[in-house]
């Protein structure tokens, strides 16, 4: 895989399944337009391949009405203004033209059909007048630099890759989609929630009378990352708190028995980090009561991926996606479970693969599954068998996908370490790059990883590991580096590297280290404390100094204390910048100008310190990009970054 081959990364996303209609939204980078192209595709359940369903340039988020008559989806146009924002469109499921039914200034979120197959719920950000291209009270539309100052009175006021929050709160809407089809233009819509708090994850009650959603604890009255489950009448009224969680809530739904299911984290103390996401259940409260939930899945072994799908009840079980040793598995949780451990949950799919999304209609299940040979294909699960229905990764395979070889190592304290190596073709000896993932409560997975493939195609063996601190190996594994960054996680990575270097065609004298975010932190840390192991380092979007990260990062106000502690001396002890004077290998600092997760000052401070110390340090700065450059940045920037990576390792390895 070469840098320009990112165009072959065609990835299916959200699935919609009803009757014989199976739709998915696909997206791929497009270097010519320097953007991402996406459309809805119909997948033949009989195995006849797939075909175009819509022909927009940026279509996504399909949803089929319960009666099977309509398809709602998001379509974004070209250029700027409202037309370029994703708006809800509706078209007949039998085929035909799509009609735009929303026209909100900043676009709309994914559509969710009501049981009556007429109304659609969605969330959307609503700007204050005079901001983000809207008119102010004087009928003027100020340029961004001429807008009034933002008056901020809370800590959770901005998010990387989204922007400022308080001046465009995310609110809940309902639109009569069928009635809107007869209107010449989208009607003005009134939000069901006020502007004091961002709300998310709408779903309907079975009678269509109310909409469930999540919102910050106590309607964002205080600074917190905690959230709860609320409901509001679909015709308007006061939101009601239904479930007070023990931490957070996401993707709430009403089960057939009337109870409420949701994903959530449990925080035993104050704001917390590295906690497994569980599946929870709570009774629908009577009167003015507020329900307390119970956890269906085990705290230590089950970590649910709420991004894959809301919980789906099939018979007496709930289907969820669970992280497990680099796999993302579709598992079945009994509705009457009580802290069920992972090994007791029936696995439907995902062994040594990654289930990224799924949809259910009756007893049929469709899923998007990535594998070591693909970035994702649509698979039909039926009768215990899996039938692959698409071949979106053919173009990717044609570039030459190299295999993931599993590695198991042992850390100095006897702890088992899991990872992989991707080796180039040929006898070698090949130079080696140790690549460290972000998070840290994240993981490399059993699926194609473009960064490893590009480097391996260029002749480098790439070592990928999930050291302590990673997700999917138990909550205690993830929390083992809380207030201990750079300790056992560093030991694990070096142990895995040593294991890889036992392979006969790897060159232990030509080794580099690279990573982004937490991986950038670890790259800086290893360069300072174990620099003799490496010839050079590539540190990207890194956390280098916890003391300034606290106030400069969008999540620093809770994340820094969670991982490094609140004591300033301990923060400095856990900061790579403190040890910049120990770094003496060539060092590339890479960052994005608009990164709010690990702000630019983190890169600038490290770069200046290294240059002042006489290190051969360089600085690669991407304009206009945020923290997600390598995954969703402008395609040309992604290729330019790959070119720079290859040039750097070409020089030093």
TrEMBL record:
Gene3D superfamilies on file: alpha/beta hydrolase, TolB, C-terminal domain
SUPFAM superfamilies given in the database record: alpha/beta-Hydrolases, DPP6 N-terminal domain-like
Q: Does the keyword Protease apply?
A: yes
Alphabetized UniProt keyword annotations: Aminopeptidase, Hydrolase, Protease, Serine protease
Superkingdom, natural source? Bacteria
Q: Which residues cross the membrane?
A: none
Taking every annotated instance into account, which residue ranges of this chain make up the domain Peptidase S9 prolyl oligopeptidase catalytic? 446-653
- One GO molecular-function annotation for this sequence? aminopeptidase activity
> Which InterPro entries does UniProt cross-reference here?
6-blade_b-propeller_TolB-like (IPR011042), AB_hydrolase_fold (IPR029058), Peptidase_S9_cat (IPR001375), WD40 (IPR011659)
Protein name per the record: Dipeptidyl aminopeptidase/acylaminoacyl peptidase
Q: Which organism is it from?
A: Amycolatopsis roodepoortensis
* Organism phylogeny: Bacteria, Bacillati, Actinomycetota, Actinomycetes, Pseudonocardiales
């Amino acid at each position: 895989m070469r840098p320009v081959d990112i165009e072959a990364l065609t990835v299916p996303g959200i699935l919609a399944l009803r009757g014989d209609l199976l739709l998915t939204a696909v997206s791929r980078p497009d270097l010519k337009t320097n953007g991402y192209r996406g459309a809805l595709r119909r997948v033949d359940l009989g195995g006849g391949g797939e075909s175009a369903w819509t022909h927009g340039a940026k279509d996504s988020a399909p949803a089929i009405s319960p009666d099977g008559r309509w398809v709602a989806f998001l379509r974004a146009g070209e250029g700027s203004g409202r037309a370029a924002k994703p708006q809800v469109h509706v078209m007949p499921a039998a085929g035909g033209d799509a009609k735009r039914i929303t026209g909100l200034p900043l676009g709309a979120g994914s559509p969710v059909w009501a049981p009556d197959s007429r109304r659609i719920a969605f969330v959307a950000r609503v700007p204050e007048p005079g901001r983000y291209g809207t008119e102010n009270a004087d009928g003027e539309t100020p340029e961004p630099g001429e807008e009034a100052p933002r008056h901020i009175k809370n800590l959770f006021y901005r998010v990387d890759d989204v922007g400022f929050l308080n001046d465009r709160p995310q609110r809940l809407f309902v639109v009569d989609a069928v009635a809107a089809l007869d209107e010449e233009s989208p009607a003005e819509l009134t939000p069901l929630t006020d502007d004091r708090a961002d709300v998310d994850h709408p779903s309907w009650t079975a009678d269509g009378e109310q909409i469930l959603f999540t919102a910050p604890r106590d309607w964002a009255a205080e600074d917190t990352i905690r959230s709860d489950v609320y409901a509001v009448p679909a015709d308007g009224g006061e939101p009601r708190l239904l479930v007070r969680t023990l931490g957070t809530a996401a993707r709430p739904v009403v089960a057939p028995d009337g109870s409420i299911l949701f994903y959530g984290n449990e925080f035993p103390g104050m704001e917390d980090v590295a906690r497994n996401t569980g599946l929870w259940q709570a009774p629908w409260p009577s009167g003015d009561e507020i329900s307390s939930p119970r956890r269906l899945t085990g705290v230590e072994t089950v970590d649910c991926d709420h991004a894959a799908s809301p919980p789906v009840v099939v018979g007496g079980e709930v289907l969820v996606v669970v992280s497990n040793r680099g796999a993302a598995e579709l598992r079945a949780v009994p509705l009457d479970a009580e802290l069920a451990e992972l090994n007791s949950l029936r696995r439907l799919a995902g062994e040594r693969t990654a289930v990224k999304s799924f949809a259910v209609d009756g007893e049929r299940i469709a899923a998007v599954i990535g594998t070591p040979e693909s970035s994702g294909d649509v698979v039909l699960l039926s009768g215990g068998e899996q039938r692959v229905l698409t071949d979106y990764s053919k173009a990717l395979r044609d570039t030459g996908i190299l295999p993931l070889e599993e590695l198991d190592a042992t850390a100095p304290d006897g702890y088992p370490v899991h990872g992989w190596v991707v080796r180039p073709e040929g006898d070698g000896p090949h130079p080696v790059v140790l690549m460290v993932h972000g998070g840290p409560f994240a993981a490399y997975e059993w699926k194609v990883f473009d960064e490893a493939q590009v480097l391996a195609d260029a002749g480098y063996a790439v070592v990928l590991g999930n050291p302590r601190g990673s997700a999917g190996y138990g909550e205690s594994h993830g929390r083992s580096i809380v207030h201990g960054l750079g300790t056992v996680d560093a030991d694990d990575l070096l142990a895995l590297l040593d294991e890889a270097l036992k392979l006969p065609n790897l060159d232990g004298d030509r080794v580099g280290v690279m990573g982004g975010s937490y991986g950038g932190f670890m790259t800086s840390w290893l360069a300072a404390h174990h620099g003799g192991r490496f010839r050079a380092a590539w540190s990207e979007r890194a956390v280098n100094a916890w003391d300034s990260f606290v106030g400069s990062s969008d999540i620093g106000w809770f994340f820094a204390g969670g991982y490094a502690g609140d004591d300033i001396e301990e923060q400095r002890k856990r900061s790579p910048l403190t040890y910049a004077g120990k770094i003496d290998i060539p060092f590339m600092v890479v960052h994005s100008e608009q990164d709010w997760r690990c702000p630019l000052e983190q890169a600038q401070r490290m770069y200046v310190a290294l240059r002042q110390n006489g290190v051969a340090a360089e600085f690669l700065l991407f304009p206009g990009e945020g923290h997600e450059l390598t995954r969703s940045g402008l395609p040309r920037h992604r290729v330019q970054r790959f070119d720079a990576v290859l040039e750097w390792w070409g020089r030093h390895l």
